[in-house]
Amino acid sequence: MRHRDPVTYFESELDDHAAVLAATRDSLRAPFEAILDLWVTAAKAGHKILFFGNGGSAADAQHLAAELVIRFIEDRKPIPAIALNTDTSALTAGGNDLGFEQIFARQVEALGQAGDVAVGISTSGTSPNIIKALEMAREKGLRTIGFTGRDGGVMPKICDACLIVPAQSTRRIQEMHITLGHMLCGALEQKLGLV
């Protein structure tokens, strides 16, 4: 990337973000509604949502789980959610004993129950540990959801619903993931009559 002055960089980044936002608005309404329906069904039945991701996607997983457990818009009763990437003992034991590709699949196997929802977050849609966890979720009868970008990678084939952000750059995909995640949290609270 060639050097740009700060003002030009500022403007070009916001222009790029706005273009991805417009493309997201045009293409992701239907999968957004499908994911919301899966979350509502699980929450109404007393099931939980399991989030997991790597790097920035791990931060998004943790962020969204906290929004559901604590609150998003207003005080209300908690919605069961767990970010699987926050348990350092399970992650390091799993990585050491089973291999990094198994760190989330093992937790899904242990904690997931039929009727729960597994939400894998991967900007590429090809992260092996995310894919293996979603496959385990399907084996156990969980509903599977992907947050991804680019061409979706493997995720669309193994997910009941998938948000594929129409962008190539990781940062733009991540920006849309947290925006859409926030929107799902708010819409879930409304659908459950909690706010």
Structure description:
The structure is a single chain. By secondary structure, the protein is of the alpha/beta class. The protein has eight helices and five strands; from the N terminus they run ααβαβααβαβαβα. The protein has helices spanning 6-27, 29-44, 56-69, 88-97, 103-111, 128-140, 155-158, 170-191, and strands at residues 49-53, 81-83, 117-121, 143-149, 161-165. It has a five-stranded parallel sheet with strand order 2-1-3-4-5, with helices on both faces. Helix 3 (56-69) packs parallel to helix 8, helix 4 packs across helix 5 and helix 5 packs parallel to helix 6 (128-140). The longest helix is centred in the N-terminal third of the chain and has 22 residues, at 6-27. The termini are far apart.
What topology does this entry show?
Elements: H1 6-27, H2 29-44, E1 49-53, H3 56-69, E2 81-83, H4 88-97, H5 103-111, E3 117-121, H6 128-140, E4 143-149, H7 155-158, E5 161-165, H8 170-191
- Rg over CA atoms: 17 Å
How many DSSP-defined strands? Answer: 5
Task: State the helicity in percent bands.
Answer: 55-70%
Biggest sheet, spatial arrangement of strands: 2-1-3-4-5
Listing every helix as H and every strand as E from the N terminus to the C terminus, the arrangement reads HHEHEHHEHEHEH
Largest sheet: 5 strands, parallel
Distance between the termini: 45 Å
In the predicted model, the low-confidence regions spanning at least 5 consecutive residues are none
The geometry reads as: globular
